[in-house]
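> example.struct
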Protein backbone atom coordinates (compact mmCIF):
# COMPACT_ATOMS: atom_id res chain seq x y z
CA UNK A 1 0.00 0.00 0.00
CA UNK A 2 1.40 3.41 -1.01
CA UNK A 3 0.74 6.86 0.42
CA UNK A 4 -1.77 7.48 -2.39
CA UNK A 5 -3.73 4.37 -1.38
CA UNK A 6 -3.67 5.40 2.28
CA UNK A 7 -4.87 8.89 1.35
CA UNK A 8 -7.80 7.46 -0.64
CA UNK A 9 -8.76 5.39 2.40
CA UNK A 10 -8.12 7.97 5.13
CA UNK A 11 -9.76 11.14 3.81
CA UNK A 12 -13.28 9.71 3.27
CA UNK A 13 -13.02 7.85 6.58
CA UNK A 14 -12.25 11.04 8.50
CA UNK A 15 -15.14 12.84 6.77
CA UNK A 16 -17.54 10.03 7.72
CA UNK A 17 -16.39 10.04 11.36
CA UNK A 18 -16.84 13.84 11.51
CA UNK A 19 -20.38 13.61 10.11
CA UNK A 20 -21.21 10.84 12.60
CA UNK A 21 -20.08 13.15 15.40
CA UNK A 22 -22.34 15.96 14.14
CA UNK A 23 -25.41 13.76 13.55
CA UNK A 24 -25.46 12.47 17.14
CA UNK A 25 -26.96 15.77 18.32
CA UNK A 26 -30.23 14.93 16.51
CA UNK A 27 -30.74 11.62 18.36
CA UNK A 28 -32.91 12.80 21.26
CA UNK A 29 -35.43 10.01 21.79
CA UNK A 30 -35.72 6.24 21.84
CA UNK A 31 -37.52 6.35 18.48
CA UNK A 32 -34.60 8.33 17.05
CA UNK A 33 -32.13 5.73 18.33
CA UNK A 34 -34.18 2.74 17.19
CA UNK A 35 -35.77 3.94 13.93
CA UNK A 36 -34.34 7.35 13.00
CA UNK A 37 -37.62 8.97 14.14
CA UNK A 38 -39.43 7.41 11.14
CA UNK A 39 -38.80 10.30 8.72
CA UNK A 40 -36.50 8.70 6.10
CA UNK A 41 -37.18 9.03 2.39
CA UNK A 42 -36.98 6.30 -0.24
CA UNK A 43 -33.50 7.09 -1.57
CA UNK A 44 -32.06 7.40 1.90
CA UNK A 45 -33.56 4.00 2.76
CA UNK A 46 -32.41 2.29 -0.45
CA UNK A 47 -28.85 3.69 -0.32
CA UNK A 48 -28.36 3.07 3.39
CA UNK A 49 -29.98 -0.36 3.57
CA UNK A 50 -28.13 -1.40 0.40
CA UNK A 51 -24.82 -0.50 2.04
CA UNK A 52 -25.79 -2.23 5.29
CA UNK A 53 -26.82 -5.44 3.53
CA UNK A 54 -23.66 -5.76 1.46
CA UNK A 55 -20.73 -5.95 3.84
CA UNK A 56 -17.19 -7.15 3.38
CA UNK A 57 -18.31 -10.64 4.35
CA UNK A 58 -20.98 -10.51 1.63
CA UNK A 59 -18.37 -9.59 -0.96
CA UNK A 60 -16.03 -12.39 0.15
CA UNK A 61 -18.95 -14.86 0.15
CA UNK A 62 -19.83 -13.84 -3.42
CA UNK A 63 -16.18 -14.13 -4.43
CA UNK A 64 -16.18 -17.65 -3.01
CA UNK A 65 -19.37 -18.62 -4.83
CA UNK A 66 -18.46 -17.17 -8.23
CA UNK A 67 -14.90 -18.49 -8.14
CA UNK A 68 -16.44 -21.94 -7.61
CA UNK A 69 -19.40 -21.69 -10.03
CA UNK A 70 -18.46 -18.91 -12.47
CA UNK A 71 -20.93 -17.01 -14.66
CA UNK A 72 -23.03 -20.17 -15.02
CA UNK A 73 -24.92 -19.77 -11.76
CA UNK A 74 -25.91 -16.18 -12.58
CA UNK A 75 -27.97 -17.53 -15.50
CA UNK A 76 -30.38 -19.11 -13.04
CA UNK A 77 -30.28 -16.11 -10.71
CA UNK A 78 -32.12 -14.14 -13.42
CA UNK A 79 -35.24 -16.03 -12.31
CA UNK A 80 -35.00 -14.28 -8.95
CA UNK A 81 -35.14 -10.68 -10.21
CA UNK A 82 -38.86 -10.44 -11.17
CA UNK A 83 -39.89 -12.30 -8.02
CA UNK A 84 -38.08 -9.85 -5.74
CA UNK A 85 -39.24 -6.86 -7.76
CA UNK A 86 -42.86 -8.00 -7.61
CA UNK A 87 -42.54 -8.49 -3.85
CA UNK A 88 -41.22 -4.96 -3.46
CA UNK A 89 -43.84 -3.40 -5.74
CA UNK A 90 -46.79 -5.08 -4.07
CA UNK A 91 -45.38 -4.19 -0.65
CA UNK A 92 -45.88 -7.79 0.40
CA UNK A 93 -45.37 -7.93 4.18
CA UNK A 94 -43.45 -4.61 4.19
CA UNK A 95 -46.51 -2.42 3.65
CA UNK A 96 -48.64 -4.09 6.33
CA UNK A 97 -45.69 -4.23 8.74
CA UNK A 98 -45.24 -0.47 8.44
CA UNK A 99 -49.00 0.01 9.00
CA UNK A 100 -48.71 -1.70 12.39
CA UNK A 101 -46.39 1.17 13.52
CA UNK A 102 -44.17 -1.16 15.53
CA UNK A 103 -40.44 -0.53 16.03
CA UNK A 104 -39.24 -4.15 15.94
CA UNK A 105 -40.61 -7.37 14.53
CA UNK A 106 -40.92 -8.93 17.96
CA UNK A 107 -43.06 -5.99 19.07
CA UNK A 108 -45.37 -7.06 16.25
CA UNK A 109 -45.27 -10.58 17.70
CA UNK A 110 -46.59 -9.25 21.03
CA UNK A 111 -49.34 -7.26 19.31
CA UNK A 112 -50.38 -10.18 17.11
CA UNK A 113 -49.68 -13.13 19.41
CA UNK A 114 -48.58 -12.65 23.05
CA UNK A 115 -45.89 -11.19 25.28
CA UNK A 116 -44.48 -14.65 26.09
CA UNK A 117 -44.15 -15.42 22.39
CA UNK A 118 -42.46 -12.06 21.86
CA UNK A 119 -39.82 -12.96 24.43
CA UNK A 120 -39.37 -16.44 22.96
CA UNK A 121 -39.10 -15.11 19.40
CA UNK A 122 -36.81 -12.31 20.56
CA UNK A 123 -34.47 -14.81 22.19
CA UNK A 124 -34.45 -17.04 19.08
CA UNK A 125 -33.83 -13.98 16.88
CA UNK A 126 -31.00 -12.77 19.07
CA UNK A 127 -29.33 -16.18 19.38
CA UNK A 128 -29.56 -16.84 15.64
CA UNK A 129 -28.44 -13.33 14.78
CA UNK A 130 -25.35 -13.08 16.96
CA UNK A 131 -24.21 -16.56 15.88
CA UNK A 132 -24.71 -15.55 12.24
CA UNK A 133 -22.93 -12.24 12.91
CA UNK A 134 -20.17 -14.08 14.75
CA UNK A 135 -17.90 -14.69 11.76
CA UNK A 136 -18.33 -11.24 10.16
CA UNK A 137 -15.36 -9.65 11.98
CA UNK A 138 -13.01 -12.58 11.31
CA UNK A 139 -13.72 -12.72 7.57
CA UNK A 140 -13.54 -8.93 7.21
CA UNK A 141 -10.32 -8.62 9.19
CA UNK A 142 -8.65 -11.47 7.32
CA UNK A 143 -9.57 -9.74 4.07
CA UNK A 144 -7.59 -6.71 5.24
CA UNK A 145 -4.64 -8.83 6.38
CA UNK A 146 -4.27 -10.70 3.10
CA UNK A 147 -5.22 -7.88 0.74
CA UNK A 148 -2.83 -5.43 2.37
CA UNK A 149 -0.07 -8.01 2.77
CA UNK A 150 0.17 -7.67 6.55
CA UNK A 151 2.08 -10.21 8.68
CA UNK A 152 0.13 -13.01 10.37
CA UNK A 153 1.39 -11.93 13.82
CA UNK A 154 1.99 -8.43 15.22
CA UNK A 155 3.60 -7.98 18.66
CA UNK A 156 2.89 -11.65 19.32
CA UNK A 157 -0.86 -11.23 18.61
CA UNK A 158 -2.72 -12.43 15.48
CA UNK A 159 -2.93 -9.42 13.19
CA UNK A 160 -6.51 -10.15 12.23
CA UNK A 161 -7.47 -9.87 15.93
CA UNK A 162 -5.94 -6.38 16.12
CA UNK A 163 -7.77 -5.29 12.96
CA UNK A 164 -11.03 -6.71 14.36
CA UNK A 165 -10.58 -4.71 17.55
CA UNK A 166 -9.84 -1.48 15.66
CA UNK A 167 -12.61 -1.60 13.08
CA UNK A 168 -15.23 -2.93 15.52
CA UNK A 169 -14.35 -0.02 17.81
CA UNK A 170 -14.91 2.42 14.95
CA UNK A 171 -18.24 0.82 14.01
CA UNK A 172 -19.29 0.76 17.67
CA UNK A 173 -18.42 4.43 18.13
CA UNK A 174 -20.53 5.40 15.12
CA UNK A 175 -23.45 3.23 16.26
CA UNK A 176 -23.47 4.38 19.89
CA UNK A 177 -23.31 8.05 18.95
CA UNK A 178 -26.81 8.19 17.50
CA UNK A 179 -28.14 4.70 16.89
CA UNK A 180 -30.20 4.10 13.76
CA UNK A 181 -30.18 7.79 12.89
CA UNK A 182 -26.40 7.91 12.63
CA UNK A 183 -26.27 4.51 10.91
CA UNK A 184 -28.72 5.65 8.21
CA UNK A 185 -26.85 8.86 7.43
CA UNK A 186 -23.39 7.27 7.41
CA UNK A 187 -24.50 4.19 5.46
CA UNK A 188 -26.23 6.38 2.88
CA UNK A 189 -23.02 8.36 2.34
CA UNK A 190 -20.94 5.19 2.21
CA UNK A 191 -23.38 3.63 -0.23
CA UNK A 192 -23.23 6.59 -2.62
CA UNK A 193 -19.43 6.79 -2.52
CA UNK A 194 -18.91 3.03 -2.84
CA UNK A 195 -21.02 2.83 -5.99
CA UNK A 196 -18.66 5.22 -7.74
CA UNK A 197 -15.74 3.13 -6.48
CA UNK A 198 -17.30 -0.06 -7.94
CA UNK A 199 -17.35 1.53 -11.37
CA UNK A 200 -13.73 2.68 -11.14
CA UNK A 201 -12.57 -0.82 -10.20
CA UNK A 202 -14.57 -2.53 -12.93
CA UNK A 203 -13.23 -0.21 -15.65
CA UNK A 204 -9.69 -0.82 -14.36
CA UNK A 205 -10.07 -4.60 -14.51
CA UNK A 206 -11.40 -4.38 -18.08
CA UNK A 207 -8.24 -2.49 -19.00
CA UNK A 208 -6.00 -5.09 -17.34
CA UNK A 209 -7.56 -8.24 -18.82
CA UNK A 210 -8.61 -9.02 -22.38
CA UNK A 211 -12.02 -10.58 -22.89
CA UNK A 212 -10.47 -13.37 -24.97
CA UNK A 213 -8.31 -14.29 -21.97
CA UNK A 214 -11.40 -14.43 -19.77
CA UNK A 215 -13.25 -16.76 -22.15
CA UNK A 216 -10.20 -19.01 -22.58
CA UNK A 217 -9.65 -19.39 -18.83
CA UNK A 218 -13.31 -20.07 -18.06
CA UNK A 219 -13.53 -22.60 -20.89
CA UNK A 220 -10.57 -24.70 -19.73
CA UNK A 221 -12.51 -26.81 -17.24
CA UNK A 222 -13.69 -30.47 -17.26
CA UNK A 223 -17.06 -31.40 -18.75
CA UNK A 224 -19.92 -30.89 -16.32
CA UNK A 225 -18.07 -28.10 -14.46
CA UNK A 226 -18.49 -25.25 -16.95
CA UNK A 227 -18.05 -21.73 -15.65
CA UNK A 228 -19.67 -20.25 -18.79
CA UNK A 229 -22.40 -22.67 -19.87
CA UNK A 230 -25.08 -23.31 -17.19
CA UNK A 231 -26.24 -26.39 -19.14
CA UNK A 232 -22.81 -27.99 -18.80
CA UNK A 233 -22.51 -27.50 -15.04
CA UNK A 234 -24.38 -30.54 -13.74
CA UNK A 235 -21.40 -31.72 -11.67
CA UNK A 236 -20.95 -28.43 -9.82
CA UNK A 237 -21.66 -29.05 -6.14
CA UNK A 238 -23.49 -26.74 -3.71
CA UNK A 239 -23.74 -23.61 -5.91
CA UNK A 240 -26.09 -24.79 -8.65
CA UNK A 241 -29.67 -24.29 -9.85
CA UNK A 242 -31.10 -25.86 -6.69
CA UNK A 243 -29.18 -23.39 -4.54
CA UNK A 244 -30.80 -20.56 -6.51
CA UNK A 245 -34.34 -21.97 -6.47
CA UNK A 246 -34.26 -22.61 -2.73
CA UNK A 247 -32.89 -19.10 -2.27
CA UNK A 248 -35.81 -17.63 -4.22
CA UNK A 249 -38.31 -19.53 -2.10
CA UNK A 250 -36.53 -18.34 1.03
CA UNK A 251 -36.58 -14.72 -0.17
CA UNK A 252 -40.36 -14.82 -0.62
CA UNK A 253 -41.02 -16.82 2.53
CA UNK A 254 -38.74 -14.76 4.75
CA UNK A 255 -39.34 -11.29 3.31
CA UNK A 256 -38.51 -8.83 6.09
CA UNK A 257 -38.11 -11.76 8.46
CA UNK A 258 -34.34 -11.45 8.85
CA UNK A 259 -33.62 -8.68 11.33
CA UNK A 260 -29.95 -7.91 10.69
CA UNK A 261 -31.00 -4.48 9.40
CA UNK A 262 -34.30 -4.25 11.28
CA UNK A 263 -33.86 -0.56 12.09
CA UNK A 264 -34.55 0.28 8.43
CA UNK A 265 -37.87 -1.59 8.46
CA UNK A 266 -39.47 1.05 10.68
CA UNK A 267 -37.45 4.09 9.56
CA UNK A 268 -39.43 5.19 6.50
CA UNK A 269 -41.60 8.29 6.63
CA UNK A 270 -44.64 6.26 5.49
CA UNK A 271 -45.56 2.75 4.36
CA UNK A 272 -45.40 3.94 0.75
CA UNK A 273 -41.89 5.36 1.18
CA UNK A 274 -40.86 2.02 2.69
CA UNK A 275 -42.26 0.22 -0.34
CA UNK A 276 -40.55 2.56 -2.83
CA UNK A 277 -37.29 2.18 -0.90
CA UNK A 278 -37.55 -1.58 -1.39
CA UNK A 279 -38.29 -1.23 -5.11
CA UNK A 280 -35.35 1.10 -5.69
CA UNK A 281 -33.12 -1.05 -3.51
CA UNK A 282 -33.66 -4.06 -5.79
CA UNK A 283 -32.54 -2.00 -8.77
CA UNK A 284 -29.48 -0.73 -6.93
CA UNK A 285 -28.49 -4.27 -5.97
CA UNK A 286 -28.45 -5.63 -9.53
CA UNK A 287 -25.41 -3.79 -10.91
CA UNK A 288 -23.48 -4.01 -7.63
CA UNK A 289 -23.75 -7.81 -7.47
CA UNK A 290 -22.81 -8.21 -11.14
CA UNK A 291 -19.75 -6.01 -10.66
CA UNK A 292 -18.56 -8.02 -7.65
CA UNK A 293 -19.16 -11.21 -9.61
CA UNK A 294 -16.87 -9.84 -12.30
CA UNK A 295 -14.12 -9.17 -9.73
CA UNK A 296 -14.13 -12.89 -8.81
CA UNK A 297 -14.06 -13.89 -12.49
CA UNK A 298 -11.01 -11.66 -13.07
CA UNK A 299 -9.25 -13.25 -10.09
CA UNK A 300 -9.93 -16.72 -11.52
CA UNK A 301 -8.53 -15.69 -14.92
CA UNK A 302 -5.41 -14.16 -13.36
CA UNK A 303 -4.68 -17.37 -11.47
CA UNK A 304 -5.53 -19.84 -14.23
CA UNK A 305 -4.62 -18.29 -17.59
CA UNK A 306 -1.10 -19.10 -18.86
CA UNK A 307 -0.50 -15.44 -19.80
CA UNK A 308 -0.34 -14.57 -16.09
CA UNK A 309 1.64 -17.53 -14.77
CA UNK A 310 4.61 -15.44 -13.68
CA UNK A 311 2.58 -12.65 -12.11
CA UNK A 312 0.30 -15.11 -10.31
CA UNK A 313 3.10 -17.17 -8.75
CA UNK A 314 3.29 -15.05 -5.54
CA UNK A 315 -0.48 -15.50 -5.07
CA UNK A 316 -0.12 -19.27 -4.96
CA UNK A 317 2.67 -18.93 -2.42
CA UNK A 318 0.54 -16.79 -0.09
CA UNK A 319 -2.49 -19.09 -0.38
CA UNK A 320 -0.44 -22.21 0.31
CA UNK A 321 0.65 -20.62 3.57
CA UNK A 322 -2.96 -20.59 4.84
CA UNK A 323 -3.51 -23.88 6.66
CA UNK A 324 -7.33 -23.80 6.90
CA UNK A 325 -8.62 -24.80 3.44
CA UNK A 326 -11.88 -22.89 3.86
CA UNK A 327 -10.08 -19.67 4.78
CA UNK A 328 -7.73 -20.32 1.87
CA UNK A 329 -10.75 -20.38 -0.47
CA UNK A 330 -12.20 -17.22 1.06
CA UNK A 331 -8.96 -15.28 0.67
CA UNK A 332 -8.26 -16.39 -2.91
CA UNK A 333 -9.79 -13.30 -4.54
CA UNK A 334 -8.48 -10.74 -1.98
CA UNK A 335 -4.90 -12.02 -2.36
CA UNK A 336 -5.22 -12.03 -6.15
CA UNK A 337 -6.48 -8.43 -6.18
CA UNK A 338 -3.47 -7.43 -4.11
CA UNK A 339 -1.19 -8.46 -7.00
CA UNK A 340 -3.52 -7.54 -9.86
CA UNK A 341 -4.71 -4.01 -9.04
CA UNK A 342 -2.44 -1.01 -9.65
CA UNK A 343 -1.49 1.74 -7.19
CA UNK A 344 -4.44 3.96 -6.34
CA UNK A 345 -7.03 1.37 -7.33
CA UNK A 346 -5.82 -0.76 -4.41
CA UNK A 347 -6.77 2.14 -2.16
CA UNK A 348 -10.17 2.40 -3.84
CA UNK A 349 -10.84 -1.33 -3.30
CA UNK A 350 -9.62 -1.24 0.31
CA UNK A 351 -11.73 1.87 1.08
CA UNK A 352 -14.80 0.21 -0.46
CA UNK A 353 -14.39 -2.86 1.70
CA UNK A 354 -13.67 -0.80 4.84
CA UNK A 355 -16.87 1.20 4.31
CA UNK A 356 -18.75 -2.07 3.76
CA UNK A 357 -17.38 -3.43 7.04
CA UNK A 358 -18.42 -0.34 8.99
CA UNK A 359 -21.87 -0.13 7.34
CA UNK A 360 -22.87 -3.76 7.78
CA UNK A 361 -21.34 -4.40 11.18
CA UNK A 362 -22.75 -1.16 12.58
CA UNK A 363 -26.26 -2.03 11.39
CA UNK A 364 -26.03 -5.60 12.68
CA UNK A 365 -24.68 -4.73 16.13
CA UNK A 366 -27.46 -2.13 16.44
CA UNK A 367 -30.12 -4.64 15.39
CA UNK A 368 -29.09 -7.50 17.67
CA UNK A 369 -28.43 -5.23 20.65
CA UNK A 370 -31.81 -3.53 20.16
CA UNK A 371 -33.62 -6.85 19.86
CA UNK A 372 -32.00 -8.11 23.08
CA UNK A 373 -33.24 -5.04 24.96
CA UNK A 374 -36.62 -4.53 23.30
CA UNK A 375 -37.74 -8.12 23.02
CA UNK A 376 -35.97 -10.06 25.76
CA UNK A 377 -35.17 -7.67 28.63
CA UNK A 378 -37.88 -4.98 28.62
CA UNK A 379 -40.90 -7.33 28.61
CA UNK A 380 -39.81 -8.50 32.09
CA UNK A 381 -39.64 -4.98 33.52
CA UNK A 382 -42.64 -3.71 35.44
CA UNK A 383 -41.45 -0.10 35.62
CA UNK A 384 -40.93 1.86 32.42
CA UNK A 385 -37.50 3.33 31.74
CA UNK A 386 -36.90 6.99 31.05
CA UNK A 387 -35.64 7.82 27.55
CA UNK A 388 -32.13 8.39 28.89
CA UNK A 389 -32.09 5.09 30.79
CA UNK A 390 -33.54 3.25 27.81
CA UNK A 391 -30.88 4.55 25.41
CA UNK A 392 -28.14 3.78 27.97
CA UNK A 393 -29.39 0.18 28.20
CA UNK A 394 -29.42 -0.10 24.41
CA UNK A 395 -25.82 1.10 24.27
CA UNK A 396 -24.72 -1.41 26.88
CA UNK A 397 -26.43 -4.24 24.98
CA UNK A 398 -24.85 -3.21 21.67
CA UNK A 399 -21.43 -3.12 23.32
CA UNK A 400 -22.06 -6.60 24.71
CA UNK A 401 -22.88 -7.88 21.21
CA UNK A 402 -19.58 -6.50 19.92
CA UNK A 403 -17.62 -8.21 22.70
CA UNK A 404 -19.35 -11.53 21.92
CA UNK A 405 -18.75 -11.45 18.15
CA UNK A 406 -15.11 -10.45 18.70
CA UNK A 407 -14.56 -13.52 20.91
CA UNK A 408 -16.61 -15.77 18.60
CA UNK A 409 -14.56 -14.70 15.56
CA UNK A 410 -11.35 -15.21 17.50
CA UNK A 411 -12.19 -18.78 18.56
CA UNK A 412 -14.55 -20.27 15.96
CA UNK A 413 -13.11 -22.55 13.26
CA UNK A 414 -14.91 -22.31 9.92
CA UNK A 415 -15.69 -25.62 8.21
CA UNK A 416 -17.98 -24.62 5.32
CA UNK A 417 -18.62 -21.99 2.66
CA UNK A 418 -19.57 -18.58 4.08
CA UNK A 419 -22.98 -18.59 2.38
CA UNK A 420 -23.73 -22.04 3.75
CA UNK A 421 -22.79 -21.00 7.29
CA UNK A 422 -24.92 -17.85 7.05
CA UNK A 423 -27.82 -19.90 5.68
CA UNK A 424 -27.89 -22.52 8.42
CA UNK A 425 -27.33 -20.11 11.34
CA UNK A 426 -29.96 -17.77 9.92
CA UNK A 427 -32.37 -20.70 9.64
CA UNK A 428 -32.45 -21.04 13.44
CA UNK A 429 -34.74 -18.04 13.30
CA UNK A 430 -35.57 -17.81 9.59
CA UNK A 431 -36.85 -21.37 9.33
CA UNK A 432 -40.00 -20.51 11.26
CA UNK A 433 -40.34 -16.74 11.08
CA UNK A 434 -41.81 -16.59 7.57
CA UNK A 435 -44.85 -18.64 8.57
CA UNK A 436 -45.32 -16.55 11.72
CA UNK A 437 -44.98 -13.16 9.99
CA UNK A 438 -47.00 -13.87 6.85
CA UNK A 439 -49.64 -15.77 8.79
CA UNK A 440 -49.83 -13.01 11.39
CA UNK A 441 -50.23 -10.19 8.87
CA UNK A 442 -52.55 -11.88 6.37
CA UNK A 443 -54.48 -14.74 8.05
CA UNK A 444 -57.15 -14.05 10.66
CA UNK A 445 -57.10 -17.68 11.80
CA UNK A 446 -53.41 -17.70 12.74
CA UNK A 447 -53.04 -18.45 16.46
CA UNK A 448 -50.43 -18.03 19.17
CA UNK A 449 -50.09 -21.80 19.56
CA UNK A 450 -49.34 -22.07 15.84
CA UNK A 451 -46.67 -19.39 16.10
CA UNK A 452 -44.95 -21.24 18.98
CA UNK A 453 -45.10 -24.49 17.02
CA UNK A 454 -43.71 -23.03 13.77
CA UNK A 455 -40.79 -21.25 15.45
CA UNK A 456 -39.90 -24.32 17.51
CA UNK A 457 -39.96 -26.65 14.51
CA UNK A 458 -37.90 -24.30 12.33
CA UNK A 459 -35.28 -23.64 15.03
CA UNK A 460 -35.06 -27.30 16.03
CA UNK A 461 -34.37 -28.50 12.50
CA UNK A 462 -31.79 -25.78 11.88
CA UNK A 463 -29.90 -26.54 15.09
CA UNK A 464 -29.95 -30.22 14.15
CA UNK A 465 -28.40 -29.31 10.81
CA UNK A 466 -25.62 -27.30 12.48
CA UNK A 467 -24.79 -30.18 14.81
CA UNK A 468 -24.73 -32.68 11.95
CA UNK A 469 -22.38 -30.53 9.87
CA UNK A 470 -20.06 -29.85 12.80
CA UNK A 471 -19.97 -33.59 13.50
CA UNK A 472 -19.47 -34.46 9.84
CA UNK A 473 -18.52 -31.57 7.46
CA UNK A 474 -19.27 -33.88 4.52
CA UNK A 475 -22.83 -34.66 5.64
CA UNK A 476 -24.74 -35.49 2.42
CA UNK A 477 -27.52 -32.90 2.86
CA UNK A 478 -26.03 -29.40 2.60
CA UNK A 479 -27.14 -26.40 4.64
CA UNK A 480 -29.34 -24.94 1.90
CA UNK A 481 -31.47 -28.09 1.71
CA UNK A 482 -31.75 -28.25 5.50
CA UNK A 483 -32.99 -24.65 5.41
CA UNK A 484 -35.69 -25.63 2.89
CA UNK A 485 -36.78 -28.56 5.05
CA UNK A 486 -37.04 -26.24 8.07
CA UNK A 487 -39.15 -23.68 6.17
CA UNK A 488 -41.62 -26.18 4.72
CA UNK A 489 -41.97 -27.97 8.06
CA UNK A 490 -42.71 -24.66 9.82
CA UNK A 491 -45.41 -23.76 7.28
CA UNK A 492 -47.14 -27.09 7.75
CA UNK A 493 -46.90 -26.78 11.54
CA UNK A 494 -48.37 -23.24 11.51
CA UNK A 495 -51.31 -24.08 9.24
CA UNK A 496 -52.23 -27.34 10.97
CA UNK A 497 -51.95 -25.91 14.49
CA UNK A 498 -53.96 -22.80 13.55
CA UNK A 499 -56.80 -24.89 12.16
CA UNK A 500 -56.78 -27.04 15.29
CA UNK A 501 -56.68 -24.19 17.84
CA UNK A 502 -58.50 -21.20 16.26
CA UNK A 503 -61.55 -20.32 18.36
CA UNK A 504 -61.95 -16.65 17.36
CA UNK A 505 -60.63 -14.79 14.32
CA UNK A 506 -58.09 -12.04 14.97
CA UNK A 507 -59.02 -8.40 14.15
CA UNK A 508 -56.42 -7.52 11.51
CA UNK A 509 -58.01 -4.13 10.71
CA UNK A 510 -57.47 -2.93 14.25
CA UNK A 511 -53.83 -4.08 14.29
CA UNK A 512 -53.19 -2.35 10.94
CA UNK A 513 -54.94 0.85 12.12
CA UNK A 514 -57.52 0.56 9.36
CA UNK A 515 -61.07 1.75 9.76
CA UNK A 516 -63.90 -0.65 9.01
CA UNK A 517 -65.74 0.32 5.85
CA UNK A 518 -67.45 -0.93 2.76
CA UNK A 519 -65.75 -3.90 1.16
CA UNK A 520 -63.34 -2.98 -1.62
CA UNK A 521 -64.15 -4.42 -5.03
CA UNK A 522 -61.06 -5.90 -6.61
CA UNK A 523 -60.44 -4.88 -10.21
CA UNK A 524 -58.12 -7.02 -12.29
CA UNK A 525 -55.93 -4.43 -13.98
CA UNK A 526 -52.22 -4.25 -14.71
CA UNK A 527 -51.89 -1.63 -11.97
CA UNK A 528 -53.48 -3.80 -9.29
CA UNK A 529 -51.41 -6.80 -10.35
CA UNK A 530 -48.27 -4.68 -9.92
CA UNK A 531 -49.41 -3.40 -6.53
CA UNK A 532 -50.21 0.18 -7.59
CA UNK A 533 -52.59 1.98 -5.24
CA UNK A 534 -53.70 5.55 -4.55
CA UNK A 535 -50.29 6.40 -3.08
CA UNK A 536 -48.47 5.88 -6.37
CA UNK A 537 -47.80 9.08 -8.30
CA UNK A 538 -47.30 9.03 -12.05
CA UNK A 539 -43.54 9.11 -11.47
CA UNK A 540 -43.75 6.21 -9.00
CA UNK A 541 -45.70 4.14 -11.52
CA UNK A 542 -43.20 4.93 -14.26
CA UNK A 543 -40.20 3.97 -12.11
CA UNK A 544 -41.81 0.87 -10.58
CA UNK A 545 -43.31 -0.36 -13.83
CA UNK A 546 -40.08 0.25 -15.71
CA UNK A 547 -38.02 -1.65 -13.17
CA UNK A 548 -40.46 -4.56 -13.21
CA UNK A 549 -40.38 -4.70 -17.03
CA UNK A 550 -36.57 -4.73 -16.83
CA UNK A 551 -36.52 -7.61 -14.34
CA UNK A 552 -39.19 -9.51 -16.28
CA UNK A 553 -37.23 -9.06 -19.52
CA UNK A 554 -34.26 -10.97 -18.05
CA UNK A 555 -36.61 -13.64 -16.75
CA UNK A 556 -37.94 -14.09 -20.32
CA UNK A 557 -34.36 -14.18 -21.64
CA UNK A 558 -33.57 -16.93 -19.12
CA UNK A 559 -36.63 -19.01 -19.99
CA UNK A 560 -36.24 -18.48 -23.75
CA UNK A 561 -32.52 -19.22 -23.61
CA UNK A 562 -33.17 -22.36 -21.61
CA UNK A 563 -35.62 -23.69 -24.19
CA UNK A 564 -33.23 -22.78 -27.02
CA UNK A 565 -30.30 -24.56 -25.36
CA UNK A 566 -32.34 -27.66 -24.64
CA UNK A 567 -33.16 -27.87 -28.36
CA UNK A 568 -29.89 -26.59 -29.82
CA UNK A 569 -27.03 -25.89 -27.33
CA UNK A 570 -25.02 -22.69 -27.77
CA UNK A 571 -21.30 -23.01 -28.55
CA UNK A 572 -18.77 -21.59 -26.08
CA UNK A 573 -18.19 -18.54 -28.28
CA UNK A 574 -21.86 -17.58 -28.00
CA UNK A 575 -21.75 -17.85 -24.23
CA UNK A 576 -18.65 -15.66 -24.23
CA UNK A 577 -20.49 -12.94 -26.18
CA UNK A 578 -23.57 -13.27 -23.99
CA UNK A 579 -21.66 -12.78 -20.74
CA UNK A 580 -19.64 -9.91 -22.19
CA UNK A 581 -22.87 -8.01 -22.76
CA UNK A 582 -24.94 -9.05 -19.74
CA UNK A 583 -22.23 -9.40 -17.07
CA UNK A 584 -19.95 -6.52 -18.09
CA UNK A 585 -21.38 -3.92 -20.45
CA UNK A 586 -24.93 -3.82 -19.04
CA UNK A 587 -23.81 -3.53 -15.38
CA UNK A 588 -21.39 -0.74 -16.36
CA UNK A 589 -24.14 1.28 -18.05
CA UNK A 590 -26.66 0.63 -15.27
CA UNK A 591 -24.05 1.34 -12.62
CA UNK A 592 -23.19 4.70 -14.17
CA UNK A 593 -26.84 5.77 -14.40
CA UNK A 594 -27.60 4.46 -10.91
CA UNK A 595 -24.62 6.22 -9.35
CA UNK A 596 -25.84 9.60 -10.61
CA UNK A 597 -29.54 8.93 -9.98
CA UNK A 598 -29.19 7.57 -6.44
CA UNK A 599 -26.60 10.16 -5.43
CA UNK A 600 -29.03 12.90 -6.39
CA UNK A 601 -31.87 11.16 -4.54
CA UNK A 602 -29.71 10.41 -1.50
CA UNK A 603 -28.56 14.04 -1.15
CA UNK A 604 -32.16 15.23 -1.51
CA UNK A 605 -33.42 12.83 1.16
CA UNK A 606 -30.60 13.70 3.56
CA UNK A 607 -31.56 17.36 3.36
CA UNK A 608 -35.22 16.49 3.97
CA UNK A 609 -34.21 14.24 6.87
CA UNK A 610 -32.47 17.01 8.79
CA UNK A 611 -35.30 19.47 8.10
CA UNK A 612 -37.78 16.94 9.48
CA UNK A 613 -35.65 16.19 12.55
CA UNK A 614 -35.68 19.87 13.51
CA UNK A 615 -39.48 19.97 13.63
CA UNK A 616 -40.66 16.41 14.35
CA UNK A 617 -42.72 15.97 17.50
CA UNK A 618 -41.13 13.32 19.70
CA UNK A 619 -43.26 11.11 21.95
CA UNK A 620 -41.47 9.82 25.04
CA UNK A 621 -43.87 6.85 25.12
CA UNK A 622 -42.90 5.80 21.58
CA UNK A 623 -40.25 3.35 22.74
CA UNK A 624 -41.22 0.02 21.18
CA UNK A 625 -43.12 -1.32 24.18
CA UNK A 626 -46.75 -2.44 24.12
CA UNK A 627 -48.96 -0.86 26.76
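> example.seq
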Amino acid sequence: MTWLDLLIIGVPLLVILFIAYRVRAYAKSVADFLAGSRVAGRYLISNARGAAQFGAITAVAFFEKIYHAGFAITWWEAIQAPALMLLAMTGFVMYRYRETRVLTLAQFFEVRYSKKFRVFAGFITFASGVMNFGIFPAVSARFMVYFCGLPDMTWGVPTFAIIMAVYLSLALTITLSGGQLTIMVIDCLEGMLSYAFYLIMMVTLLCLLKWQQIVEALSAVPAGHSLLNPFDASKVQDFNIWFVLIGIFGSVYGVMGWQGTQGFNAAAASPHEARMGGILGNWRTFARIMMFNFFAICAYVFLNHPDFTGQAAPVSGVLQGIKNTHIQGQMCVPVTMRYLLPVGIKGVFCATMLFAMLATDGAFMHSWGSILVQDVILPFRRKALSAREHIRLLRVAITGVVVFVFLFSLLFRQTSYILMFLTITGAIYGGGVGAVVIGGLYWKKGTTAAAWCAMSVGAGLAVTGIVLHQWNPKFPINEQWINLIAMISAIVAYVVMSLLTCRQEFDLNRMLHREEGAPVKWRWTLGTLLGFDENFTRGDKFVSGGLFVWAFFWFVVCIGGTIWNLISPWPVSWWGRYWRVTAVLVPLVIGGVTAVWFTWGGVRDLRRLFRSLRTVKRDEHDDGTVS
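> remarks
The chain has two domains: 3-260+276-414+539-615, 415-501.
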